[in-house]
Structure formats: C-alpha cells, structure tokens
Design goal:
It is a single chain. By secondary structure, this protein is mainly alpha-helical. It has one domain: Amino acid/polyamine transporter I (Up-down Bundle), CATH 1.20.1740. Helix content is about 70%, strand content about 0%. The chain has 17 helices and two strands. The chain has a two-stranded antiparallel sheet with strand order 1-2. The model has no long low-confidence stretch (mean pLDDT about 85).
Length: about 450
C-alpha cells in the first residue's frame, strides 16, 4: 500500500483533464468570436465549440495509444523522443515547460487575479509601490495564487492529488450554479433575445476562413485534454485509467463549454460580450453582473477566481513531470529529476514556478495566448501522427490501448490542426517566427548535453 501513495488515482487523472481545460479560455474566446471579423452567429458559435470538443476527443484517443505504448511520464517530451529523435523530444520538453505550462500558468494566474480583485473592493488598475516599481495588485494576487499551489504540490503526490480533487469539485459546482442562475433569477434582467437556430448566413460562416481563426481560440480553451498523459508513469492502472480520464474528462468539458456559451449568449448581447480591452478577461463578470447586479455579481466572480486555482494545481502536477523526466534522462540536469520522499519533483516544481512568475511580470495575456496556441499545436500534431509510426513499427504492448476510429480520428485531428495553423500564420506570421526562435536555445542546450544522456 505504501507504494500507492506515489501513484495518482483515476479520479485525480479525470480531474486533471477537467481542471486543465476549464480555465481562462472559456471566459475570453467568445468575446473575439462575436466581433464583426469573427463568427458573430449564435448557431455557428455553438458548432465551433462542439467541433473543438470532437477534435479534442480525436486527439485524446490517439494520445491514449501513444502514452500507453511509450509508458513514460513527461508527455510529448517522452513520446517524441521515442517516436522521432531525442532532439525532437528535448525541444518539445523545452517548449512544454515554457509555453505549455509556465505560460499557461501565468495566463491562468493573471485571470485569477482579475477575478479576485472585486472581493478586495479595489479598482482593476490599482497598483502597489514596492521600491522603484509600481506592481498591479492583480499580478500580486496572481503571484500569491501560484505560490499557494506550489506549496501544496511540494507536500507530495497524495496531498496534491487530494487537493486537486476537491478544488476541481468546487470549480464544477460553481459552474453548475452559474449555468442555472439565468433561469433562477430570470426576472432580474432582460435576455439578449438571440436565436440559436441556423440562419441564412450560418453555413457561410461555418465554411468561411474566419471560422479557422475562431478555432484557434476554441482550441486554446480546450488545451489540457491531454493532461493525464503527462503522469502515465505515476498513474494507477494506466491501461484502463489513462484512456478513461482522457475521454471522460474531454466529454464532460465539451458539454460544460456548450452550456456555458449558450448561457453567455442567452444572457448578454454581442455588444456586451465583445472585449473592451485585450488585457481584461471579464465575460464571466459581464454575465454574472447582469444577472445578479453589480455588487453580488462581482462577488460571485471573485469567488469563482478560487475555482480557477484548480487549473493552476493541475498544471503544477503535469508540467513538472516533463522537467523531471528531462532530469532523469540527462545527467546535466539530474537535480531536476530528484523528488521528495512523498513523490514531489521539488526542483522541477520550483523551476516552473520561477519561469511562470517571470512571464507574469514581462508578458501580456494576449501575447501568452497567441504564443501557446501555435506552439503547442505543432507538437500535438507530431504526437498524434505518432500513432501511424507505432502501427508501422508494430510497437504495441499488452498495455497498449488502441485508438478508437483509427485511422479516421487521428487524420481528422491532424487536418483540422494544420488548417488552424495555416490561418494563424497567414493572419500573424510573426507568431510562427517567435515560436521557432524559442526553440533555438533548446537545440543548442541539447547538443551541449546529449553526451550526458543516461
């Protein structure tokens, strides 16, 4: 029984997927979709959120086969090292540490700070002078949230898993309350009056180029559907629990996202939902305030910030596993591979904490979101394509879970992600340039360290 304290249970794996996925994306993506250069059609918006869920499911099924065949923690780092070359895995591990988790942690922490400020009764733009600099209070709250989660995860696998379960249950409970509020307090506000039935322009919108651009934000919201694959080496009965967590977690979030977008558009007009500021993440505030009034609505939004901490916790479970695996594979980074008696990858957690805090104070939320969207998709495509490589190599083991719908489901995932990247690069080519530039240090570090590979 003692050994099981270092293994995550099935419920933790499912909750990791849910907590990783439900973060800031659902509260900002719709704002860009309702703009004139987006897809301002209620039916098309619901279709794209359903499509995002289906694409994520296709990816999750492929990840289940790759993860159970390779059977190592560390996500894409471990998978791509086995599938292609250690250099590809090392670069993906580097990007995963910076973009996949640290940048995502920074973005989610910033959102937590924005939503928590109403509880403090202060202005969103309020600052505190600390020596030579003025620090936004929202960023100070974000820092505190990260340090709190780090302290929890350093307690070890068992304590961190219990915390993850309960904080995710809180998040789902608050979302359930949010979904029924419009109907309980129906007399408090005037609904938007939009129709969710397909209109004359719905199908033109769905097959138009802006639809691909809107999919970028949707897939950012769904990012995290592969979260439990990062802990496959520390998961009880991975052959059964990994695919279960990937599929069930993604299905639950897909239903939640469809319902939340329905509620958003049912309550507020497109004009009210449109972003007023790229740095302000406030669709939840807009809707809660319209239903409950300014005071109660802001308090609810502030309490909801506590639920966002579940996403931070899930990322601090999955992300350090990538860094730790690099430490185990390369003697140059062996310090990162060490863990405490309770199973916590101490130095990997601390490194990710430092990188996340740096990003909080040096980047805007919009920059973080765009960078994550393009960079992570590239490695997800390589991982899903790995299913075809494994089948060609006949690398299946007795623990391998076969991809449902092969080869159709992985092909659907790959084609839609390539379509999304093409639009993204056409719209903003510099994002791809910066993604490639970020990979250069990883290549240099790899060639200096490859002789130290264990």
């Amino acid at each position: 029984m003692a050994g099981l304290t270092k293994k995550y249970t099935k419920s933790v794996a499912v909750n990791m997927v849910i907590a990783n996925m439900i973060g800031t994306g659902i509260f900002i993506s719709l704002g860009f979709q309702v703009l004139d250069n987006g897809i301002p059609d209620p039916f098309a918006i619901l279709v794209i959120w359903l499509l995002g869920g289906l694409v994520s499911l296709c990816g999750a099924m492929a990840y289940g086969e790759v993860a159970t065949t390779v059977n190592k923690s560390g996500g894409e780092y471990a998978f791509l090292s086995e599938l292609y070359h250690p250099l590809v895995g090392f670069v993906s591990g580097w990007i995963s540490m910076i973009a996949g988790f640290s940048a995502a942690i920074a973005g989610l922490a910033l959102a937590t700070g924005e939503y928590f400020i109403p509880l403090l009764g202060i202005n969103h733009d309020a600052t505190v002078n600390l020596g030579f600099f003025d620090f936004p209070i929202s960023k100070i709250v974000a820092t505190i949230a990260i340090l709190l989660v780090v302290a929890v995860q350093l307690r070890g696998v068992r304590f961190g898993g219990i915390f993850q379960n309960y904080i995710t249950y809180l998040k789902v409970a608050l979302i359930a309350v949010f979904l029924v509020m419009p109907f309980i307090f129906a007399g408090n506000y005037e609904p938007s009056g939009v129709s969710f039935m397909p209109s004359d322009k719905s199908f033109d919108t769905i097959f138009g180029l802006p639809f691909a651009g809107a999919l970028v934000w949707v897939m950012f919201s769904y990012s995290g559907w592969n979260a439990s694959s990062y802990i496959v080496g520390n998961l009880e009965n991975p052959r059964k629990n990994l695919p279960f967590s990937l599929v069930v977690g993604t299905l639950i979030v897909t239903v939640i996202y469809l319902l939340m977008n329905f509620v958003f558009m049912y309550v507020a007009t497109f004009e009210e939902l449109a972003p007023k500021d790229f740095a302000r993440i406030d669709i939840g505030n807009v809707v809660a305030t319209k239903i409950l009034g300014s005071k109660v609505g802001l308090i609810f939004s502030g309490v909801f910030s506590l639920a966002l901490i579940s996403g931070l916790s899930a990322m601090f479970i999955a992300g350090p596993k990538v860094v730790q695996q690099i430490g185990k594979d390369y003697s140059s980074f062996r310090l990162l591979g060490k863990e405490t008696e309770s199973g916590a990858p101490k130095y990997a957690v601390l490194l990710m904490c430092v990188v996340s805090l740096i990003l909080i104070y040096t980047s805007s939320f919009k920059q973080i979101v765009e960078y994550i969207g393009i960079t992570l998709t590239l490695f997800s495509i390589l991982t899903v394509f790995g299913v075809f490589i494994l089948r060609w190599r006949k690398a299946s083991t007795e623990n391998t879970v076969k991809t449902w719908g092969y080869p159709i489901t992985p092909i659907i995932f790959i084609l839609l992600m390539i379509w999304m990247i093409i639009f993204f690069v056409y719209d903003n080519p510099m994002i791809l340039v910066w993604s490639l530039v970020t990979m250069v240090p990883a290549v240099v570090i790899y060639y200096f360290s490859k002789n130290d590979k264990k």
